[in-house]
Write a structure and sequence with these properties.
The protein is mainly alpha-helical. The chain has one domain. Helix content is about 85%, strand content about 0%.
């Protein structure tokens, strides 16, 4: 009976909060939603990496500061990707050939910079971790990135056939 009272009290407290959350949700912009999701993913990413890498205390002491630097550089590039996605959402109904060309160039520039940053950090990670652990790090990172990219792909609509087709 005590458990039932606790559940009932919790439900009574949550009903007003649900209304507040709906009112508050109208004030949240897509950029806020994206940033909140990115923050959550960073936290989860570190937890997954910690579980998968199985670092010694000495490795951990050297790894995490370097990983934080790496993640900060990747995040800066990710900020550009977010900006591009938000701009795309704003332009979605008015995609022009010039915009499409610019979007393609930006996309490949971002991808190239991500790849270059990842390659540059391999050397640095190898100074503090054995090669097998570095390979494992990048394998886990790749899987986590694939999950994120699937989520993004599901959320971003494909340019419609109504977009300007002229070159």
């Amino acid at each position: 009976m005590h458990k039932f009272k606790f559940i009932a009290a919790t439900l009574i407290l949550l009903v007003p909060l649900a209304g507040f959350a709906q009112t508050r949700q109208a004030l949240v912009t897509p950029e806020h939603n994206i940033e909140a999701a990115r923050k959550q993913m960073r936290t989860e990413r570190k937890l997954v990496l910690a579980g998968e890498l199985v670092l010694t205390p000495d490795e951990s002491k050297a790894f995490w500061p370097l990983y934080n630097d790496y993640a900060a550089e990747i995040r800066k590039i990710g900020d550009e990707r977010v900006r591009m996605i938000v701009e795309y959402a704003e332009m979605f109904d008015n995609i022009t050939p010039d915009y499409a060309d610019r979007m393609l160039k930006e996309y490949f520039d971002i991808e190239q910079r991500l790849l270059q940053t990842r390659k540059n950090y391999v050397k640095r990670f190898k100074t503090i971790l054995p090669s097998v652990k570095v390979a494992r790090l990048y394998q886990v990172e790749n899987k986590l990135n694939a999950i994120m990219n699937i989520e993004l792909a599901a959320a971003i609509p494909i340019i419609g056939t109504g977009a300007s087709q002229a070159n």
